[in-house]
Amino acid sequence: MADHYTAGLTLMDESFDLLETRNYELAVFLADESFTFCIHDFKRNKFIGLQQFNKSVVKQFNASPVEKISYADFLGDVCEDLPWLKGTFRLVKIAYDGRKSTLVPAPVFDPEEKDNYLKFNFQPGTGEQVLYDHLLPLDSFLPFAIPDALTNSACIHFPDIRIVHVASVLIESIWINYKNRIDVPHVFLHLREKLFDIMIFDGRQMSYFNTFPFQNAEDVTYYLIFVMEQLGFNPEKVPLVLLGNFEKGSDLDELLFRYVRHVEFGRRNDAYKYSYVLNQLPPYAQYPLFNFFSCGL
Questions:
Q1: Do 156 and 204 share a domain, yes or no?
Q2: Where residue 245 falls among pLDDT bands split at 50, 70, 90?
């Protein structure tokens, strides 16, 4: 039943056993056009697989060429073809990868006003609900909007699961992995599919976080340099850490190295082991996904 999706990354260790899901932990990222998960073998403390599925653009049968596929059809087909995803896991965590989110300091956060916080930066959308995460390490809340269709579809296949936001996972991951390891501000740039995140962290406090849409490498470079200059950070001196869907040698890679003197790529969390099949991914790829279980979300 692959009419509604195309398979992307498929990296599964041969030790994966459908009868052992009770000893596995499942981390899932939902996006408007994709579904990605990784599997952690709890007994061996080892990641043993990752798969990604992308929603097809239009229905292939009995539909007009402009009719979009619903998320329910998309996710339903994936779970029908991989029925073990709905089995019993030791732990399941789900995060939504979307644009509409904002940070609010805990002292001024009011759950009753969660919708209004987003209205400062985004136009309200129809068919959406606003959820929020509590980032305990930073004493902040992150309200975010998520489509009802996506939430309802996810709850059918993963009932009683709380959905958090990818930005929350990223922020807590960086805080956990870099706290007390750095003593000067670092700029972290995390590239998603059509969005990228900028976070500034000095090993103790986060001084900045924001998400931007982009269409090309020039957009990313422009916003990065603009943010750094507005905040008084010299691109010649402040280190930049790259995470996410980067390709070494790409136009973006070359631009960033041209305008920022100290550039490094992020590393995997050495608290875990990783199957050899995951070596096909660079160590800075899928950073929030592989760090989801270390977060308190």
A1: no
A2: confident
